[in-house]
Structure formats: structure tokens, C-alpha cells
UniProtKB/TrEMBL annotation:
InterPro entries: DEAD/DEAH_box_helicase_dom (IPR011545), Helicase_ATP-bd (IPR014001), Helicase_C-like (IPR001650), NA-bd_OB-fold (IPR012340), P-loop_NTPase (IPR027417), RecG/Mfd (IPR047112), RecG_dom3_C (IPR045562), RecG_wedge (IPR033454). GO terms for molecular function: helicase activity. Residues 287-460 form the Helicase ATP-binding domain. Keywords: ATP-binding, DNA damage, DNA repair, DNA-binding, Helicase, Hydrolase, Nucleotide-binding. The keyword ATP-binding applies. It comes from the Bacteria. It comes from Isoptericola halotolerans. Residues 482-678 form the Helicase C-terminal domain. This is Probable DNA 3'-5' helicase RecG.
Length: 751
């Protein structure tokens, strides 16, 4: 950014005007021009004043009914009282001053019949609602001549995200001051001319004028669309560059070897692969056989069997003499993967041991909480190549971890890992390893394009045959009869030899806030919290007086003393347990020694106990949709139908209630993912899905702007193909760099 756009606002507007803007994070002309209006006021339509709330900071469009200045007898000084109206209701405006003269200019402006925007905090005086010393702007009054006044009066009024210190029209004025003198030469455009011409888009300057100073609604709509396209285009160009860079890298080809581990594994598999697993498996096998790194996203419904696909890919690589690393988001999941792998491989995982298969390999497990001895052993097996498969958590990213010949990186349940972590692991290969990324839940196509846009996508849509399915119900927490029924049901299932999960949002009843990392991002970076519920902020009016969230330890005690569950062993699992205890708890549950497991969301991803048929989720309304969907995917994995009971304290009609009701209504992960996006803000979605990416997207909406994203992707890919280093597209190059900087910053802040 150079020239006029880079100019500090303090220079352009003066220190006094720039100060409050700086507090909003707006430092330069460019920052201010990217502070887009949230919506637009229609100058012809007045605000319905019946809806104003006491104590609320409001901006209303209203017409002046009357205004009079009078002296105040009791206190001295003068008072201007005005009344504005929406045509039906009235709102008072009150101004005080030492002398009546000081109020004359207001009186002069606030002439009956004029309309304007008034902003202030709503208070009440003798039963009438009013604004004291409101800030205001009158339509058409601040223009120089009549004709201009007419034009100004008919424009849609941009309403900016504002603060009490900087009302929206102060921002509007500041924007006008910096925008009006700009020329096309001042405003470089990251969208190349030929793309703009082809799609019939306005220039960047035109678009800025359209959103900040629109002539009519169609005008700002067109400008906004063009700016959305720009955001999508810059992002897609960055992703296209990333794809092109990795495609140009060299990898080791790892073609299948007949009569190797993979063939043995397939022969021992207790089920037939689904069509989808077979199709994706062939695709992956072919790409692994190429001397160019595979870059693939495997997404699919919960329980669709993504792990088997990944295992088979890993075995192909081991057969070809390479190693595979499997990166899991939690210790529980990493341990389970290692257990499953060893179990499925049997003697094949005992390479080099007495009784192990001749062509066998080893599976090493590396997590943050290993003892020094076990850790050293695992590191050694990875570095020597003795372990063909190394399973781990973030610990795998550490500097001390070396591989003899890393050929494939599998990232399981991607939503807890960012691009940076993927890269850190990829960097451990001598040449670029192949990469397979798996999502925890299905994601809509444009989210895949936006968040995982540097990867090719495969999707598993079908579930393996013989699944009996899951039924879900919302249980109002306050209804004793329903709650009775919950435990009755748990008892019935346990008596039939099956198991139940009971999920709580907190560990300890004394934790006065949520568990660490309650923004759902705690697992980023180095920490290895296993229970990081992805709590949602409560919307306005939802907070109220709520009972404290249920806690694992408290609920376990309650269940142990419940006559209905007499004789049932209740297990406990949460992230603060020592790893050995976590493993033991999981193993006892899997083996049926403890038929009920009270747990945090530590079981959210991937945990696989086929006999588990019931899940009770306390405070279900406080979890995110995809998290609940993922949790629920832990049951009904065997031949018996699953029952998910969502205990909720949400008030009917709130977004929280909408979330749990949606969950109860469908098990279609794609449908839920789309709904999830609609109920949240975009920043949330992208932020939760992956670090970064959100800061540069101000206007773009990943679901609603699907067409635009697809269009931007096609155009950006073409531009990058023709000019991979973007040597002829300096502005685009700068925009990408700025975006990466912002991402990096965000990532560092969060880590
Ligand atoms: P997800 O896609 O959610 O990660 P998993 O890979 O954990 O699903 O698979 C869920 C369960 O289904 C596991 O117990 C797995 O062994 C089993 N499974 C996978 N593929 C098949 C298949 N083709 N037929 C029957 N069961 C399968
Ligand atoms: Mg899985």
C-alpha cells in the first residue's frame, strides 16, 4: 500500500478527528475505506420509535415536529426542547446550555418538517422517552446549494459500525473527506483489468464510491458485490499459488507393492469397503504413486469410515519403504488410533519382534505427556525408520521429532489444526511428503473451497451398510418426568449389554468459568487440552439467570447414588486426568467394565466404541452444531440403533434452541453444516475451522456467496496459471502478502 491510501488519518483528517478512529483500529486512509457500512438507511423511511428500549444507544431516522428554547428558572441557564416523530410516536431531544444564545444554532437547524438521524442513549423524563444532547445530522441541510441538497437528501444513508464516541455520520464525514479527492491513479486494484472487463465489474474506486456514497440501493449493492468478489479473488489467488507451488515440488512416488502390508490388511479386514471407500482409495493410491505430492482433503459424514481410507494409504507408503505420520487432535484419539492400528495389523505391527511378520512394521505413539523413557523410544523408532507409522498429537510437530523417510502425512479431524501446523509436519520430510487431510464433519462445498482451497477434495457420503441409525430428542432440563425417562433408558440399554456416554461441558463443579480455551480454539498452538468445548457466545437475552453448567465430577456422583443405576459401574473421563488414567477409562468403557462413561467433549472426535448406543448431552444448547453432530457420531456405530438425548435449558425461540432442535431433526451432516454457517457469523466459521483467513474477509459470506467464490476461484486459477509468480500483477501480489501478514498475526496472537 503506497500513496494516498497509505496516508495516516492523522495527516488527512487531523489529530482530533483521527484519535477516536484509531481507537476503532482505523489508522490509515485504506483502513477507513475498508470500514464498510453495515447497512443503509432509507432517507424516506423513518424508524419505528415504538421499538426503542430504555438505556439503549440508538440511531433513529425521524422528522422534527417542534423545537423551542426557553430559560430555566430554577437552575439558571437555558434549555432547548425538541420533539421528533416517526409519524406516530414522539421522542424528545433535550439540550442544556448556560445561555440561550448557545442553543440558537440548534434551534435554527431543527426546523419542523426536516428529517435527520439522531443518536444517543434513550432515557425517560416524566414518562416521555428522550435523548439528552443527541448527536444528529439533518438530511440535505449540510450541503452547499439546493440542488446538491436534493441529491444528498435522496441518497441511501450509510450506517457504519460505530461507537458512542464516533457516531456513524462522523465516520461518514471522515470517509467523504478521504474519498472525495481520490482518483483512479490513487486506488490500485488487485483484480486485473482483463478479469474486471470479462465480468463487467466496476473499478475499485467506483466500488468504494458506491458503498460509501451510493446514489441508490442498486448502486451500493453493485459496489458491495464487486468488493466481495475482490476478497474472494485475493484469497483464491493465494490458494492457487499455494497449490501451484506444491504441485511443482517433487515427492517420492510410493506405488502399491503386491503381497505387502496393505494386501494383508485388506485380507484381514472384517468388512467389505463401501463403494465410496473403494473409489477414494483408488484415487489416493494413484496419487501416492506419482512423484508429485498428493494434496487431498477427505471429507465425509461422521462414521463414514474415513480412518480406514487413511490407514490403507499409510500402509501403501510403508510398503513402498516410506513412513507415515498420523496427526490427531487429542491424546485420547491418538492413543485410540495407535491401538486400532496395532489391533488391525496384528503380527504385521510387530516387525522385528519375535513372532512378528517378516515384512511387518511398528506403530509408534508420540504424545505430549509420554514419560521420558517412552518418549525416547518413540523418537528413536521414528528417526531410525523402525516405526513405519508414527501416531501423535501436536507433539509430532516438535523440533526433536525426526523421520528416516517421511512419505505421507495424515491429518485427522482437521478442524483443530491450521495450515501452519500442516506445513510444520510436511517440512519433516526430505522431499515433500504426500498429504491427506480429513475433516471431522462434512462441510459445504464453498467452505471447502475457502478454508481448504489449496487441496483437492474427496467426499464419502454413504455410511457402511448395517448401521441402524441414530434418533435424537431434545429433553427440557426442567421437566422431571423426561429426565426420569432418560436414566430409565440408559438402564435398559446397559442391561441389554450396551453402553452410554454422558457428556458435560465442565469438569469440576467449582470451575466458575468454562474449561480452558472455551473459545474453542485452545487446542491450537502448543497446548494439548483434550476437552475444548466449542462454546458459543450467548445471544442477547439468552443469558439471564441460568443454572450453572453441569460438571463431569458432579454428574458422576449423582449417577453413582441413583437407585435406578445401582450396580452399574460409572467411569469418568476428562482432559485433566493423567494420560494413563484416560487410557484406562477408555479401555474399561470399550471392554464393558464400566457401561456408563461420564465425560467432557474429549470423546468428541473419532472415538470408536461400537457397543455405545446412548448419549446424554447436558447443556446441549451451549455446544455448537457441528460439535454436537460429531459427538453424536460416537453412538450407533454398531448394529444397534443409537439414541441421543440433548438436555437443554434453552428458552424456546432463541438461537440456542434452534441449534438443538435442528440437531434433533436431522442427521444429515451437510445440511447441519450449512445451517451452522447460517446461524453463526462468518468469522466464527472460518476461525473455528482453521486459524487465520477471517481477518481479510469483511464482506464475503461463505454460504450466500457461493457463486461468487466459485467464479473468483476460476478466474484466480487462470491468472496464477498464466503468471505463477504474479510478476505482472503487483497489486494482487501485495494484497496476498497483506492477507498472509494479517493471518500470521492472528495466528501468533492466538498461539
Ligand atoms: P469416521 O469417518 O467418522 O472417522 P471411522 O473411520 O471412525 O469413521 O469409522 C467408523 C466405524 O465404521 C469404525 O468402527 C470402522 O471400523 C467402521 N467401518 C469403516 N468402514 C466400514 C465398512 N466398509 N463396513 C463396515 N464398517 C466400517
Ligand atoms: Mg474419524
Amino acid at each position: 500500500m503506497t500513496g494516498r491510501l497509505a496516508e495516516p488519518l492523522a495527516t488527512t483528517l487531523g489529530k482530533r478527528a483521527a484519535g477516536p478512529l484509531a481507537k476503532m483500529g482505523l489508522e490509515t486512509v485504506d483502513d477507513l475505506l475498508r470500514h464498510y457500512p453495515r447497512r443503509y438507511g432509507d432517507p424516506g423511511r423513518l424508524t419505528d420509535m415504538d421499538r426503542l428500549q430504555l438505556g439503549e444507544h440508538v440511531t433513529v431516522m425521524a422528522r422534527v415536529a417542534r423545537a423551542t428554547v426557553r430559560p430555566m428558572r430554577s437552575r439558571g441557564g437555558a434549555l432547548l426542547q425538541a420533539v421528533v416523530t416517526d409519524g406516530r410516536h414522539e421522542l424528545g431531544l433535550t439540550f442544556f446550555a448556560k445561555r440561550a444564545g448557545a442553543l440558537r444554532p440548534h434551534e435554527d437547524k431543527l426546523r419542523p418538517g426536516r428529517s435527520g438521524l439522531f443518536t444517543g442513549v434513550v432515557s425517560e423524563y416524566r414518562g416521555t422517552r428522550q435523548l439528552t444532547h443527541p448527536d444528529y445530522i439533518l438530511v440535505g441541510v449540510d450541503a452547499d446549494d439546493d440542488e446538491e441538497a436534493m441529491v444528498e437528501a435522496s441518497r441511501p444513508i450509510p450506517l457504519y459500525p460505530a461507537t458512542a464516541a464516533v457516531p456513524t455520520w462522523r465516520i461518514q464525514r471522515a470517509v467523504r473527506t478521504v474519498l472525495d479527492p481520490l482518483t483512479e491513479d490513487d486506488v490500485d486494484d488487485p483484480v486485473p483489468d482483463e478479469v474486471r472487463a470479462r465480468l463487467g465489474l466496476p473499478t475499485r474506486l467506483d466500488a468504494l464510491r458506491a458503498v460509501h456514497v451510493p446514489d441508490a440501493a442498486e448502486h451500493w449493492q453493485r459496489g458491495r458485490r464487486r468488493l466481495r468478489f475482490e476478497e474472494a479473488f485475493v484469497l483464491q489467488a493465494a490458494l492457487a499459488q499455494r497449490r501451484a507451488r506444491t504441485a511443482a515440488e517433487e515427492a517420492t512416488a510410493r506405488p502399491p507393492r503386491p503381497a505387502g502390508l496393505l494386501d494383508d490388511f485388506d485380507a484381514a479386514l472384517p468388512f467389505a469397503l463401501t463403494d465410496g471407500q473403494r473409489r477414494v482409495g483408488e484415487q489416493v493410491a494413484a496419487e501416492l504413486s506419482e512423484a508429485r505430492p498428493m494434496q487431498r482433503l477427505l471429507q465425509g459424514e461422521v462414521g463414514s469410515g474415513k480412518t480406514v481410507v487413511a490407514l490403507r494409504a499409510m500402509l501403501q507408503v510403508v510398503d513402498a519403504g516410506g513412513q507415515a505420520a498420523l496427526l490427531a487432535p487429542t491424546e485420547v484419539l491418538a492413543a485410540q488410533h495407535a491401538r486400532t492400528l496395532r489391533g488391525m495389523l496384528g503380527p504385521l505391527a510387530e516387525g522385528g519382534l519375535l513372532g512378528g511378520a517378516a515384512h511387518g512394521t511398528r506403530v509408534a505413539l508420540l504424545t505430549g505427556s509420554l514419560g521420558a523413557g517412552a518418549r525416547k523410544e518413540a523418537l528413536l523408532q521414528a528417526a531410525s525408520g523402525e516405526a513405519g507409522i508414527v501416531v501423535g498429537t501436536h507433539a509430532l510437530l516438535g523440533d526433536q521429532v525426526q523421520f528416516a523417510d517421511l512419505g505421507l502425512v495424515v491429518v485427522d479431524e482437521q478442524h483443530r489444526f491450521g495450515v501452519e501446523q500442516r506445513d510444520a509436519l510436511r517440512a519433516k520430510g526430505r522431499v515433500a511428503p504426500h498429504l491427506l487431510v480429513m475433516t471431522a464433519t462434512p462441510i459445504p462445498r464453498t467452505v471447502a473451497m475457502t478454508v481448504f482451497g489449496d487441496l483437492e477434495t474427496s467426499t464419502l457420503t454413504e455410511l457402511p451398510a448395517g448401521r441402524a441409525g441414530i434418533t435424537s430428542h431434545v429433553v427440557p432440563a426442567a421437566n422431571p418426568r423426561w429426565n426420569e425417562r432418560v436414566w430409565e433408558k440408559v438402564r435398559e440399554e446397559v442391561d441389554a449389554g450396551r453402553r452410554a456416554y454422558v457428556v458435560c461441558p465442565r469438569i469440576h463443579p467449582d470451575d466458575d468459568v468454562d474449561v480452558p480455551g472455551s473459545t474453542g480454539r485452545g487446542a491450537q498452538g502448543s497446548a494439548e487440552f483434550d476437552d475444548v468445548p466449542e462454546f458459543l457466545e450467548l445471544a442477547d437475552g439468552e443469558a439471564g439467570d441460568r443454572a450453572p453448567l453441569r460438571a463431569v465430577l458432579e454428574v458422576a456422583d449423582m449417577l453413582r447414588s441413583m437407585p435406578r443405576l445401582a450396580g452399574v459401574e460409572i467411569g469418568v473421563l476428562h482432559g485433566q486426568l493423567p494420560p494413563a488414567d484416560k487410557d484406562a477409562a477408555m479401555a474399561r468403557f470399550a471392554a464393558g467394565e464400566a457401561s456408563v462413561l461420564v465425560s467432557t467433549t474429549v470423546i468428541e472426535v473419532g472415538v470408536d466404541v461400537p457397543e455405545a448406543t446412548v448419549m446424554v448431552v447436558f447443556d446441549a444448547d451451549r455446544f455448537g452444531i457441528s460439535q454436537l453432530h460429531q459427538l453424536r457420531g460416537r453412538i450407533g456405530r454398531g448394529g444397534h440403533p443409537g439414541l441421543c438425548l440433548l438436555v437443554s435449558t434453552a428458552q424456546p425461540g432463541t438461537p440456542a434452541a434452534a441449534r438443538v432442535e435442528a440437531l434433533a431433526a436431522t442427521t444429515d451432516g451437510f445440511e447441519l453444516a450449512t445451517l451452522d454457517l447460517e446461524l453463526r457469523s462468518e468469522g466464527d466459521v472460518l476461525g473455528a475451522a482453521q486459524s487465520g483467513r477471517s481477518s481479510s474477509l469483511r464482506l464475503l459470506r461463505v454460504v450466500k456467496d457461493a457463486d461468487l467464490i466459485a467464479e473468483a476461484r476460476a478466474e484466480a486459477t487462470q491468472v496464477v496459471e498464466a503468471d505463477p509468480a504474479l510478476g505482472d500483477h503487483a497489486t494482487l501480489r501485495d494484497a496476498i502478502a497483506a492477507q498472509l501478514d494479517a493471518e500470521q498475526e492472528e495466528f501468533l496472537e492466538r498461539a
